[in-house]
Design a protein that fits this description.
- It holds the Pfam family Amidohydro_3.
- The chain is an alpha/beta fold.
- It folds into 3 domains: 99 residues, Urease, subunit C, domain 1 (Roll), CATH 2.30.40.10; 307 residues, Metal-dependent hydrolases (TIM Barrel, Alpha-Beta Barrel); 126 residues, Diaminopimelate Epimerase, Chain A, domain 1.
- It has 17 helices and 25 strands.
- Helix 4 links the parallel strand 11 and strand 12.
- Helix 7 crosses helix 8.
């Protein structure tokens, strides 16, 4: 729940660790010349390279008006100024989760969950378990018009994937759609294919990327890749009246972890429902953080009207804390299901190297449109070829106009990237966005066996940082069940160590170990670089005079915590625009 400013003192009074003192200084000058709120005696890591540390901040009208030492703040203290002595507490700027999915997480929660998950929320079921579960569930729920559930494990099947025959033997009278663990492929029975109108003669939405797997005779096997299944999914999985409350649960959790701004990186076919609900929360003053929304292109035909649709959503739903100025493209898929676009074939299937949603020439035309409209672009790329095509198109438009386009480009995930393309990020001003909690997974969990020896050179943020590129970090959260993965301090720890939090120092290291990211760069990626990605670096991302007063008070100094204990650090208070939106009680 957002704590309004009039309740500020009541909230802080609940914090035993923070002492509160009222100022005794009374000035004859007008109250408007003084700060509303001052925090003193803190260890403030500002993320401002010109002044990285401070002791005191003063806030007026939701912005920082002073950042410095205790003595220098005295001129900002008036009769109505509230002063808080933080007693040496560690402070950061408000954190930015620059790629997450509160709406998609809420929608996915309407899906039935198979009861086979480990402590991280990932499935550990076997093929036998999945089929046994379906048999039992279908018998117990005979009146359900459809079964939409998740998730099964890719590793339980070979390169061809599962087959509809096994589902048909259990359920043949109603559609069954079972999502795999990463959400990039679906296992469907014959009834689901029939409702979709998919036959051996059907055209695929995006051949080689979003398509229906077929056997040697051309018959669909029941495996739908990427988002070819979406028209049926949208009919069968509908958000309920709980959509708003579920999204609020996610947003409140993020706020409790110090996050003050996010990029909602796409809602598949549910943009309308998600932004309508968020808009209502915004109008009621219930959003605990800023949300930059996006229009989601996941099938080729959605690019033609993307700009018009984004502008329509912006007009209908933007408000105080909800803005929409980004388009997200799902440009390729993921390596475990062979849809990541690679420069050379998969190691265990020499006939496949993956492809992109559309070619470089179409992407360039689209970038011209975005430049004209000053709309930012966020592109899902996991393969080295997908990254190269996106960089090529951006370089082409940069050369055309003779300057950096009025479209800030971010390439997210970057599971596998060519060393030749590393300097191009800095040269072109392209942001690289990573999901650090994945850096704590093993190559087996990630399903990178399909890459062969390339699996030892994945998810490498450090070469980009060393070259001077802007690198942001995020959670890519898409599950209510695994909400703890959205903890940015968990992300900082795993990105810093390239090890999962379970097992501590003994946990396996995701190679190469030399690509561990420094703690300073992890913090910068969750603050200034995230703000830069959102095109708000002049407003957010560091504690500087003139910027919005977003800040986080922590239980411990991150620079003094054991590198294997970072995820345990607690947020005590989160401020958004100078107001308390979370307080540890």
């Amino acid at each position: 729940m957002i704590i309004k400013k009039r309740l500020f003192w009541r909230a802080l009074a609940l914090m035993a660790s923070i002492s509160l003192t009222s100022t005794s200084i009374v000035s004859t000058a007008a109250a408007g010349d003084f700060a509303d709120l001052i925090f003193t005696d803190a260890k403030i890591y500002t993320v401002d390279t010109s002044k990285p540390w401070a002791q005191t901040v003063a806030i007026k009208d939701g912005r920082f008006v002073y950042v410095g030492d205790n003595e220098g703040v005295e001129k900002w203290i008036g009769s109505k100024t509230e002063t808080v002595d933080l007693g040496g507490k560690f402070v950061l700027p408000g954190l930015v989760d620059s790629h997450t999915h509160p709406g998609m997480s809420a929608v996915y929660s309407e899906m039935t969950t198979m009861p086979f998950t480990d402590s991280t929320g990932m499935p550990y079921t076997s093929r036998k378990d999945t089929l046994a579960w379906l048999k039992k569930f279908s018998k117990e729920n005979p009146d359900l018009p459809a079964i939409v559930a998740g998730s099964w494990r890719v590793a339980d099947f070979g390169p061809e994937g599962p087959n509809k025959r096994e589902l048909d033997e259990i359920v043949s009278d109603r559609p069954v759609i079972l999502m795999e663990q990463w959400g990039h492929s679906q296992w469907m029975n014959s009834k689901a294919l029939e409702m979709l109108g998919v036959t051996r003669n059907s055209e695929d939405p995006a051949p080689g990327l979003a398509f229906f797997q077929r056997d040697s005779t051309g018959e669909p096997t029941g495996l739908s890749m990427e988002y070819a299944h979406l028209p049926l999914w949208k009919k069968l999985l509908r958000p309920t009246e709980k959509l708003s409350s579920k999204m609020l649960t996610i947003l409140d959790y993020l706020s409790s972890q110090g996050v003050t701004s996010i990029l909602d990186a796409g809602n598949l076919a549910y943009d309308e429902e998600v932004y309508a609900a968020l808009s209502q929360l915004d109008k009621k003053g219930r959003l605990p953080l800023r949300i930059e929304g996006s229009y989601h292109i996941y099938l080729p035909n959605r690019i033609d009207n993307a700009v018009a649709e984004l502008k329509r959503l912006r007009s209908a739903y933007s408000g105080d804390k909800l803005t929409l100025n980004t388009i997200k493209i799902h440009f390729d898929g993921i390596a475990p299901v062979y849809t990541s676009a690679l420069l050379s074939p998969y190691s265990d299937n020499a006939k496949i190297s993956g492809t992109t949603l559309f070619d470089e020439s179409r992407l360039l035309v689209f970038m011209r449109e975005l430049h004209k409209e000053k709309i930012d672009l966020h592109i899902h790329v996991t393969g080295d070829n997908a990254a190269r095509i996106a960089l090529n198109a951006y370089e082409a438009i940069t050369d055309e106009i003779g300057k950096q386009p009025d479209t800030r480009l971010t390439l997210c995930h970057l599971d596998y990237m060519s060393d030749e393309d590393v300097p191009r990020f800095r040269q072109l001003g392209v942001v690289a966005n990573f999901t650090p909690h994945w850096h704590g997974l093993s190559e087996t969990e990630l399903g990178f066996q399909t890459l062969g020896e390339r699996k030892n050179r994945t998810m490498r943020a450090k070469p980009l940082l060393d070259d001077g590129a802007v690198v942001s970090f995020s959670s890519d959260q898409y599950s209510l069940e695994a909400l703890a993965q959205a903890n940015p301090f968990l992300g900082m720890q795993t990105g810093h160590n390239r090890q999962g939090v379970i097992g501590g120092i003994a946990a396996p290291v995701l190679p190469p170990i030399e690509d561990r990211v420094s703690l300073k760069n992890m913090i910068k990626g969750y603050t200034y670089s995230g703000a830069y990605q959102l095109n708000m670096e002049d407003q957010l991302g560091s504690i500087e005079v003139g910027k919005k007063a977003d800040m986080v008070v922590l239980s411990d100094n991150l620079f003094e915590v054991n590198r294997y204990e970072l995820y345990k650090v607690k947020v005590e208070t989160t401020l958004l625009d100078g107001e308390v939106v979370f307080n540890l009680q």
